[in-house]
UniProtKB/TrEMBL annotation:
Name recorded for this polypeptide: peptidoglycan lytic exotransglycosylase
SMART domains: MltA
UniProt EC number: 4.2.2.n1
GO cellular component, as recorded: outer membrane
Sequence segments annotated as region (Disordered): 25-46, 433-452
GO MF annotation terms: hydrolase activity, hydrolyzing O-glycosyl compounds; peptidoglycan lytic transglycosylase activity
Keyword Cell wall biogenesis/degradation attached: yes
This protein's UniProt keywords: Cell wall biogenesis/degradation, Lyase
Stored PANTHER family: MEMBRANE-BOUND LYTIC MUREIN TRANSGLYCOSYLASE A
Pfam families: 3D, MltA
Extent of Low complexity compositional bias: 30-42
Record-annotated Lytic transglycosylase MltA domain positions: 173-330
Organism, as annotated: Sphingomonas abaci
Amino acid sequence: MRWIGGVALMFALSGCGGMIVPPAPGGGPAPASRPTATAARPTTHHLVRDERPVAVRQSDGRIVAATPIPPQAVVVPPAPANALAAGIVAGPPVATLPITDVQAQAARAAFARSCPGLMRRTDATGLTRGADWQVACAAAGAGGDARAFFASQFEAVQVGDGRAFATGYYEPEIRGALERRAGYEVPVYGRPSDLIDVDLGQFSDDLKGKKVRGRVQGSALVPYYDRTQIEQGALAGRAPVIAWAADPVEMFFLQIQGSGRLRLPDGNILRIGYDTQNGRAYTGIGSLMRQRGLLQPGQASMQGIVAWLHDHPVEGAALMRENKSFVFFRELDGPPQGAMGYAVTGQVSAAADPKFVPLGAPLVLSVDRADATGLWVAQDTGGAIKGANRFDTFWGAGPGAEATAGGMSARGTAWLLLPVGTLARLTAAATAPSYPQTPYPMTSAPGATPQP
C-alpha cells in the first residue's frame, strides 16, 4: 500500500460516443518496455542477495517528451463522490490507444494476478460488478496476442474530464543493519502494540468509510504519537525495531515511498513494506521549502531536497518533523505489495483512487512523457492519490527507478479500460423508465442539451 502518493507530488503538490451525465447540483513516441514480476507474501527476516534492476530511462539519461491525445470536453459536477458521479464517456477503440506489445504482455500478467481480488471486491466506483470481470479474467489466462486480448475484452471510457496527472514512486534502497551499531542509529519500527484502528462506520451510518487511528489514554481514545514524539522515544517498549537505518533523511524518504530495501553491511538485502501509519496527516516538506524560499530554481527534485536536508542537518531535522505522519513497517520476502495484496510490478503497476478506478483494472495514459505513456494496471492506492484521473506510476528499484520516479510529473489524458458491454449496461440503467427520480440523462454527444 502506498501511504503517500508519488515522489513528485511531495514536492509539487477522440471517438465520440454516448455519455452518462452525472446529476446536476440539486437535481507520440513509443513508451519504454516494462518487465514483469511475481507475487510474494510477508515473512520474517528473509534476506535476498543483490538484484540489479532494469534501467527505466533512456541510456543517455534523456527524458523523451510526447504529445498527449486530448480528452473529450465534458462538464463535470463539483467534487463528485466516485466515477459514476463524475460521469463517463466512451473513449477511442482500445486498438488505437498507445499500447506496445511488451506493455500488453506485462499488463495482462498483472491483470490476471489481480483478477481474484477484482471479482471479489465491491467496486466503489459504481461502474462494475464482480461478475462483469469474469469473461476478461478467464481470457487473460488463455494466452495468445496480448494486445488483441485488451482490444477484444475491453472498452475505453473517459472518467470525468479525462485530464490525467501522474507522478511516480519506486522501491528505494537505503543503508541498514539488523542490530544497532555505530553509524546505524535510526530505528525502523514495526507496528506498535498500542496502536488502535477504529472503523467509525461501526458507530454511525453517517461515518461509513471513515477510520481513525489512536491509542487509549485512561478511558479516552487520543491521537497516536506524532513524528516528533516518536523520534524523542515515545515508542520505547511499544514497538518492535525491525532494523536500524544509517541516515535519517534516507529513512524519511523510505517512509514516503511506503516500502523499500535495506542494504546490510554484509551486502545482503532486507525488504520491508508498509504495515500501518500513526494516523496523523501528511505534510509535504517540498511545498514548505518552496514557500519559505529554501529551494533554488532547479533544486525542487527529490535529489535537490535530499541534498539540502543533508547540508542543513539541524534545520532539516526540524523541517521533517513538521510532517507528523509516521509509517510502520513489516518484513517482506519478495517484491513490495500493493493495496490489493499482490506484488506491484515496476513499469506496470500504478496507484489510483479506488473511488474512481476499480483496483485491478487496466488503464491507458497518453501524457507528455513517453516513459509514462501506455498501459498500466491499478494495483495500489496512496494517501495523496485522490480523485479522478490521478495516478502514481511504479518504477521498480534502483538508480534508474529513483531518477524517473523522483522527477515524474506527467499530464495528459487517461482512459479506464472496462469489460466490453459495461458502458451499454450503465447507459440502459441510467435511462430506464423504472427509475424516474435518477437524474442521469443521456446526450448524443458531449455538450448536447440533456433530455428529461
